[in-house]
Specification:
Elements: H1 9-16, E1 22-25, H2 35-42, E2 50-57, E3 62-68, H3 75-82, E4 87-89, H4 95-99, E5 117-120, E6 128-135, E7 138-143, H5 144-151, E8 154-156
Parallel strand pairs: 3-5, 5-8
Antiparallel strand pairs: 1-7, 2-3, 2-4, 6-7
């Protein structure tokens, strides 16, 4: 649990569900806040670190996709698992309005609304997963099953082959 850190909304939700997690902090003054850079800064294998992407459908539904930082979202697969014809990334300017988080600090846990969340199947190969804690400079590591529970997420194949 968090000690000596300002709690983010994601951490408060994990605490309320009694889900254990570990916090990693990193300096962001250099502007390197992409997932691979963050993994290096906190000394974690990038394969354990997942990024949170927010997209909308042709019907304006919002979806959340959690994928490994070294991978790219396959928009066709994303649309298929979402049950819509097409999805595209939301503009960066809309991230905070829709999620309550900013680019680079967007956690799949504790968004303004409970959007359908899809976690790439590579998570099945891991005991734990690292995602944004909801603030630039902070990451949380938790069990994959706990991420599924805390986001009501589904494990699916959503990255480019």
């Amino acid at each position: 649990m968090a000690k000596g850190h300002t709690k983010t909304n994601a951490m408060r939700i994990l605490d309320s569900k009694k889900i254990p997690y570990e916090i990693y902090t990193y300096e962001s003054n250099d502007g390197k806040i992409d997932g691979v850079s963050v993994a290096k800064k906190v000394g974690i294998d990038p394969k354990l670190v997942f990024k949170t992407l927010v997209a909308h459908s042709n019907t304006k539904e919002i979806f959340v996709f959690v994928i490994p930082v070294e991978e790219e979202l396959d928009l066709k697969k994303a649309a298929t698992v979402s049950g819509v014809k097409k999805v595209e990334m939301i503009p960066v300017k809309d991230i905070q309005k829709l999620t309550g988080y900013i680019r680079g600090g967007c956690s799949p846990i504790g968004m303004k609304k409970a959007y359908p969340t899809f976690i790439d199947e590579q998570a099945n190969n891991l005991d734990s997963i690292v995602v944004s804690a909801g603030k630039i400079g902070m990451q949380v590591e938790l069990k994959v099953d706990d991420l599924i529970v805390s986001t009501n997420g589904r494990i699916v194949d959503i990255i480019k082959a």
